Amino acid sequence: MATVISSQKMTLEEFNSLPEDDGVDRMLIRGVLVEEPMTKRNRWHALVEATVARLLGNWVADAEHPAGIVFSGEVGCELVAGGEASSVGIDVAIFSTERISEQSEDARFIKGPPILAVEILSPSDTQERVQQKTDLYLSAGTQLVWIIDPHFKTVTAFTKDSSPIMFSGEDDLSANQLPGFSVPVSSLFSQAKANH
Q: How close are the terminal C-alpha atoms of the chain, in Å?
């Protein structure tokens, strides 16, 4: 099945009322429904996701001030940018404790932007889709976006008002938005040694 993009705009309520379909990955990007075939994440993607979530979780646990809450595994997030609604799954994200405290107990998805959104590239990802999601995150108020490439073992960091910065090898991955967080980029990939 190819990517299907609806020609009609949709509200969050309409999107959330769609029936579940285990074979389809759905996103609402600026009011436009995007459906793609559900693919299994390859082992390198899964390993990098687990490693990033663990490293960020360790940083949160050791922080002297409330740093936020780490979510992983395609956490559902509802965003509004330019008056248009979106609903996406984020590989790994940190949300502020304030943002989480605003959520209702029965909410399936987190409403509002994370501090950090991490997307880990899969072979099926297109440049257009990655750029679209990065632009969406930043325009909706996400402070920092990391695009992680397990094949080239790089992390590209995006913020709203700065040029992207690429980290690789023994570069220290750090950011003003994550005070005190610093790890060598190689540590994200140290267990994923196979060529893929």
A: 24
Instruction: Report the C-alpha gap between 78 and 12 in whole angstroms.
Output: 8
The β-bridge partners of 158 are 145
Closest CA to 77 of 93, 60, 89, 85: 89
pLDDT at residue number 88:
93
Q: What dihedral do alpha carbons 148, 150, 154, 157 form, nearest 10°? A: 0
Task: Name residues whose C-beta falls within 8 Å of residue 191's C-beta, 6 or more positions apart in sequence.
Answer: 47, 51
CA dihedral for 97, 50, 155, 173, sign (positive or negative):
positive
The Cα–Cα gap between 118 and 72 comes to 9
Alpha helices in 39-156 (DSSP H): 43-62, 97-101, 127-139
pTM greater than 0.85 = yes
